[in-house]
Fold this protein.
Amino acid sequence: MPVVMLDSAADPRVADYVALSDAALRQRTDPGRGLYIAESSKVVRRALAAGHVPRSFFLAEKWLAGLADVLEAHPDVPAFVGSPGVLEEITGFHLHRGALAAMNRPAPLPVAEVIAGARRVVVLEDIVDHTNLGAIFRSAAALGVDAVLVSPRCADPLYRRSIRVSMGGVFQVPWARLDDWEQALDQLRRTGFTLAAMELTAEARPVDEVAAESIDRLALVLGTEGAGISEATLAAVDQTVMIPMRPGVDSLNVAAASAVAMWELRAR
């Protein structure tokens, strides 16, 4: 296995790992460069198990033994190894989760392919917080969601924090980014989906009541923290649903609410 010892943070061969802590920069540059960063040994293994192709590995020397089988399985992929100080100088943060890998970003999936045969789809409107996005994907993978669709302005599911929070769930659930939000909602309806938005409105129905109706194909729309789902989207969906709560509490974090709704509305 080609282990490359790093003596300097200025080594041009590790350009994929420079300034990883700058989320705004990475979201602009990584998709264009056709890569994403998998963070932690567990996530790296899950990315590889999903069939994703590594460009390189990046780790401290103490993690070499624990990742030896992975490196041996990819003998032509360089493994950049350095001291914690050099690695931190390159990435902008302290590596404490084993290893990183720069992965080739898989080709985007067409929406029609992602929803074909699906019974439960989660649709995310403008969720820009990477932690919430990753948590939603983790719940989707665990609770039987067949596909996730993200709006044009939604955060990148393959940003390293989203991947890490999802514990690799982004590799387990098919997903697609929508080019045209309004057209996508119409496409879901034309293919037999009932559109239900999680939003506290005067017409919102308890989620367990909706679950009792045994809807065959359901698309659950979730909105961003604070602003929630847009008025235009609320006007386009078939119904709104809510989670009944104790008096004095009006909402849950979107990631927590999504898990409750996914479980209640699961296909039976």
